[in-house]
């Protein structure tokens, strides 16, 4: 998903990709782009990085208990057996579902049907929350009670998000959902499947940004209806920039623009992190490769957010590419060499 910057209620340099968008930079009055040049903007970027780190650390923490649920046969992995070699055919079905969901969302936006769009968003969010809760409650509550408890909790969470949509409430729930989805699907993927998925999503991101450019429409809709599919950071005061700040003195820069980070930017790289950390995976080589994927994700995020350009850029090539490169380097360092390619 993406980091979106708003200036005077106008969406600038944004795009949305199904369950994933890409970070964007805010354009100043001269048309140049500079996120890190403004100290007030640097802080939200670091907070977004902290959110990304929190998602992956939480995903690592809940991997053992969720993996135990799958290993005990209390639930089935959504993408098949992660101990099989090669790329799983199930990932193609997963990609097809993402594509269909994206097409449906775009059509809802083009029809200007806010109720349908809100319904689709709440339905998808509800399914994700309920599924994550069921898997996590399976060992504690049992196979009979877990679905009922999860359903009640899901309805309560959705009502909370709808009636009290404070940014910190949305962010906290999104962190939990991203960690849960990233873990469940990451556990279900072996390393070749996870890498294949990240590459395909990165290529799709490039096509959507530089070729079709159709995802900007969806991004604008997500922001306008305050969809709970994004992390939110409100505008921060410019007072910390000093009393001599011209924009603050003129009254135009009292608040920096809100930033939004799409859930997919947190979920998709996390799948590779969890797959690398999962001890039941065929290519498991200890925690070092997973740590490499995490560090690579953060490096890719920082490079993306500090790059200067005069146009939009796809975000997943940076995030997914960083995760893949970080994993491969750490995998080699861990002593396995190139056995992954066998």
Task: Kindly describe this structure.
The protein is mainly α. The protein has one domain. 64% of the residues lie in helices and 4% in strands. It is built from ten helices and four strands, in the order E-E-H-H-H-H-H-H-E-H-E-H-H-H. The chain has helices spanning 39-71, 90-110, 114-163, 167-188, 191-212, 215-224, 246-250, 263-277, 287-306, 316-336; strands at 4-7, 10-12, 230-233, 259-262. A four-stranded antiparallel β-sheet has the order 2-1-4-3, sandwiched between helices. A hairpin with a 2-residue loop joins strand 1 and strand 2. Helix 1 (39-71) packs across helix 4 (167-188). The two termini are 33 Å apart. Mean pLDDT is 76; it is low at 1-38 and 237-255.
Percent helix among the residues? 55-70%
Calculate the terminal CA-CA distance, rounded to whole Å.
33 Å
Order of helices and strands: EEHHHHHHEHEHHH
Helix/strand class: mainly alpha
Rounded radius of gyration (Å) = 20 Å
Oligomeric state of shown chains: single chain
């Amino acid at each position: 998903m993406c980091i979106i910057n708003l200036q005077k209620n106008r969406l600038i340099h944004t795009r949305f990709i199904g369950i994933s968008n890409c970070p964007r930079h805010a354009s100043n009055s001269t048309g140049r782009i500079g996120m890190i040049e403004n100290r007030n903007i640097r802080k939200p970027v670091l907070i977004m990085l902290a959110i990304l780190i929190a998602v992956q650390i939480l995903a690592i923490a809940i991997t053992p208990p969720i993996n135990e649920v799958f290993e005990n046969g209390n639930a089935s992995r959504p993408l098949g057996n992660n101990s099989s070699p090669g790329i799983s055919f199930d990932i193609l079905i997963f990609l097809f579902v993402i594509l269909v969901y994206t097409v449906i969302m775009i059509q809802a936006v083009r029809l200007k049907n806010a109720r349908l769009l809100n319904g689709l968003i709440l339905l998808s969010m509800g399914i994700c929350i309920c599924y994550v809760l069921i898997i996590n409650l399976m060992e504690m509550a049992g196979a009979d009670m877990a679905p009922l408890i999860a359903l009640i909790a899901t309805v309560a969470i959705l009502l909370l998000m709808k009636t009290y949509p404070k940014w910190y409430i949305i962010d906290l729930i999104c962190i939990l959902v991203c960690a849960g989805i990233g873990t469940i699907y990451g556990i279900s993927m072996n390393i070749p499947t996870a890498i294949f998925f990240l590459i395909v999503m990165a290529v799709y991101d490039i096509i959507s940004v530089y070729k079709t450019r159709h995802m900007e429409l969806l991004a604008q809709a997500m922001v306008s209806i305050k969809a709970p599919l994004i992390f939110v950071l409100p505008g921060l005061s410019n007072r910390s920039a000093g009393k001599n700040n011209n924009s603050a003195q003129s009254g135009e820069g009292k608040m920096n623009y809100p930033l939004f980070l799409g859930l997919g930017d947190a979920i998709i790289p996390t799948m590779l992190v969890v797959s690398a950390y999962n001890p039941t995976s065929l290519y498991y080589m200890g925690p070092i490769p997973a740590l490499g994927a995490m560090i690579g994700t953060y490096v890719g995020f920082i490079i993306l957010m500090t790059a200067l350009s005069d146009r939009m850029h796809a975000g997943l090539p940076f995030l997914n590419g960083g995760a893949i490169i970080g994993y491969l380097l750490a995998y080699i360092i861990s002593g396995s060499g190139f056995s992954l390619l066998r």
